[in-house]
Write a structure and sequence with these properties.
- The structure is a single chain.
- The chain has 177 residues and is of the alpha/beta class.
- 20% of the residues lie in helices and 29% in strands.
- It contains five helices and eight strands, in the order αβαβββββαβαβα.
- Strand 3 and strand 4 form a beta hairpin.
- The longest helix has 11 residues.
């Protein structure tokens, strides 16, 4: 699903998506149960598989979690694959503020990704084209607009569950009066 969203975003922006044939699909779990499954009580439903779409050079990125200062090479925190919340292996889970930058490439567009967990699996695809400033309004309490200006973002993308975005008090944190 994240790959299909990426392809459509690239079309909207007049950019070329990396073809699916350029990815190596790595199955990282065949016992994946999401949050909805854990909350629904329908324990008879079979687990899903969770996959990373890997591309050449996808470890040539530095991911910094500003909440705690942890730094990763690439997009994945594989320690979560041994835990219940395996999905948090994408960009090391839910954090207020994360950056992903391609090592040694200073002239890339910068994208502010405003997301909840729906954006986690999309980030590695977007990082192919952009350095990323990633915030989650459930935890990031400063102005998103100020961050975009401070960091020189060229684009802003909001990938959020609409019910959460419109029903919570976080919409004002976008800072776009």
């Amino acid at each position: 699903g994240a790959y299909l969203a990426y392809v459509e975003l690239m079309k909207l922006w007049g950019m070329e998506a990396l073809p699916e044939s350029e990815f190596t699909v790595e199955v990282v779990s065949d016992t994946f149960y999401g949050t909805a499954w854990r909350n629904a009580g329908m324990k008879w439903i079979e687990p899903d598989t969770m996959e990373y779409y890997r591309y050449e050079g996808d470890e040539d990125f530095t991911m910094t979690v500003h909440d705690d200062g942890s730094v990763f090479e690439g997009f994945y925190d594989r320690s979560y694959l041994e835990k219940t919340d395996k999905y948090s292996s994408f960009i090391s889970g839910n954090h207020a503020y994360v950056t992903i930058e391609k090592n040694g490439d200073e002239n890339r567009e910068r994208l502010l990704l405003v997301k909840d967990s729906f954006g986690h699996s999309l980030a590695p695809f977007l990082a192919y084209h952009f350095d990323l400033e990633i915030i989650d309004l459930r935890y990031y309490k400063a102005s998103a607009a100020a961050l975009a200006l401070e960091t020189g973002c060229d684009r802003v993308l909001i990938i959020n569950n609409m019910d959460s975005l419109t029903g919570a008090a976080t919409l004002g944190l976008l800072g776009m009066e």
